[in-house]
Amino acid sequence: MAVAASLDEKIEPIYREVIRRNPGEVEFHQAVREVLESIGPVLVKHPEFAEHRIIERICEPERQIIFRVPWEDDEGNVQINRGFRVEFNSALGPYKGGLRFHPSVYLGIVKFLGFEQIFKNALTGMPIGGAKGGADFDPKGRSDGETMRFCQSFMTELYRHLGEYTDVPAGDIGVGTREIGFLFGQYKRITNRYESAVLTGKGLDWGGARVRNEATGYGLVYFVGEMLAASGTSFDGRTGVVSGSGNVALHAIEKMHALGGRVVACSDSDGYVLDEAGLDVELLKEIKTVERGRVSDYADLRPRARFAPAGNIWHVPCEVALPCATQNELTGNDAARLVANGCIAVGEGANMPTTPEGVRVFLDAGVAFGPGKAANAGGVATSALEMQQNASRDSWTFEHTELRLAEIMRDIHHRCYETAAEYGKPGNYVAGANISGFIKVAAAMVALGLI
Ligand code: GLU
Question: From the CA of 305, how far away is ligand 1's center (Å)?
Answer without folding.
Answer: 32
